[in-house]
Amino acid sequence: MQDLVSTDFFVVPTATFRLLFVFIVLSHERRRVLHFAVTAHPTAEWTAQQLIDAFPWDTTPQYLLRDRDGSYGRAFEQTTRAMEIQEVLTAPRSPWQNAYIERLIGSIRRDCLDHVLVFDERGLRRILKSYFDYYERSRTHLGLEKDAPIPRTVQLPSLGRVIEIPQVGGLHHRYERRAA
């Protein structure tokens, strides 16, 4: 699992009826979001650059799981070959074959984007950055034995009373123990 990542796009409509495209790179090992980017006009060259940005230096995975979206294009395929990443393509119209990233996209929509208005690319980047911080540090996952992608320590009652920490603009909360 540590050698496998998934990529996918999803579309976010803005309050002004423009469409923004979000590109995500997800590590399967602990379901960590390694990289995300937002654009109004995805091209194969832009997508290839996002892959380069996601894996600086010698951090490339061995396998990359993706669908057959036309936004990937020839430039993306050439970049994966140059980075020595083996692409694994899902069957046409088969999102269940890329289940982890599809589940993440559903969570982003249900937990965040269904409750906010997006006006522009910068605002969407800010919202997603806040959500991914919550997703990786606070949101529990059954597949990770109710832990977050970035592991949390168990807080004993002796550490103090429980306090509430708002996250994602108050959409979600994290609860921790703090000394009085």
Summary?
This protein is α/β, with parallel strands linked by helices. It has helices at 44-54, 73-82, 99-111, 121-137; strands spanning 4-13, 19-27, 32-39, 63-66, 86-89, 161-167, 172-178.
Characterise the protein shown here.
This protein is α/β, with parallel strands linked by helices and 180 residues long. It has a single domain, classed as Nucleotidyltransferase, domain 5. The chain has 4 helices and 7 strands; from the N terminus they run βββαβαβααββ. The chain has helices at residues 44-54, 73-82, 99-111, 121-137; strands at 4-13, 19-27, 32-39, 63-66, 86-89, 161-167, 172-178. Strands 3-2-1-4-5 form a 5-stranded mixed sheet, with helices on both faces. Helix 2 links the parallel strand 4 and strand 5 (86-89). Helix 1 packs parallel to helix 2 (73-82). The longest helix is centred in the last third of the chain and has 17 residues, at 121-137.
